[in-house]
Specification:
215 residues; mainly alpha; Endonuclease III, domain 1; disordered N terminus
Length: 215
């Protein structure tokens, strides 16, 4: 059996399917804890673009999104204007949705405010990490596929919207939390689950400059 065949035979979360790009994303990225403000901002924006679509659609366009949004440099995106929106609406390499493009620019400005108030986006977002006692006991695919939002994702969504963010509903926020490692939702039989759990256990959570009220 080749290395490729062995990789294909590994037990994964069912959503990874058979697409090679999707499998690589599942194996190397999804659920791995992230502290990079750039990656956190990219993901919350792309989850907004995903609304109403599938993640594989966004994943296939991700490199173009990165190109047109300056590698998701938050300050550079915050400086974009109506001319940039008009230009991006003609770019077939991304999702040409005026509201979502405008929301990304708006959210960049709001993200700069969070960085100022909390020290980093990482310090802010990791303050919404779900406590272990609030996680479900059943980590099977049948149970996890029905878990579209949680108390923590609803709290994050509410707080982001109060800060002026757009396209950050509780389901979008939960998908973001799953992907960025704020929870480990790899199924109990997935070969990535233990590795992700070990990375989360070894992670030093950032300390915010100011404290949020407890969830």
């Amino acid at each position: 059996m080749s290395v490729s065949d062995q990789s294909s035979a590994l037990p994964r979360c069912p959503w990874a399917g058979d697409d090679a790009l999707y499998r690589h994303y599942h194996d190397a990225e999804w659920g791995r804890p992230v502290l990079s403000d750039t990656r956190l901002f990219e993901k919350i924006c792309l989850e907004g673009f995903q609304s109403g679509l599938s993640w594989i659609t966004i994943l296939r366009k991700r490199e173009r999104f990165r190109a047109v949004f300056h590698g998701f440099d938050i300050a550079r995106i915050a400086a974009m204007d109506e001319a940039d929106i008009a230009r991006l609406l003609t770019d077939p390499g991304i999702i040409r949705h005026r509201g979502k493009i405008a929301a990304t620019i708006n959210n960049a400005a709001r993200a700069l405010e969070i960085q100022r108030d909390f020290g980093s986006l990482a310090a802010y977002f990791w303050g919404f990490e779900t406590r272990p006692e609030h996680r479900p006991d059943d980590l099977s695919w049948a149970a996890l596929r029905l878990l579209a939002q949680t108390d923590a994702s609803r709290a994050l969504s509410k707080d982001l919207r109060q800060r002026g963010f757009k396209f950050v509903g509780p389901t979008t926020c939960y998908a973001f939390m799953q992907a960025m490692g704020l929870v480990n939702d790899h199924t109990e039989d997935c070969f990535c689950r233990d590795a992700v759990e070990a990375e989360r256990a070894a992670l030093t959570r950032p300390t915010p400059l100011r404290q949020r009220p407890p969830l």
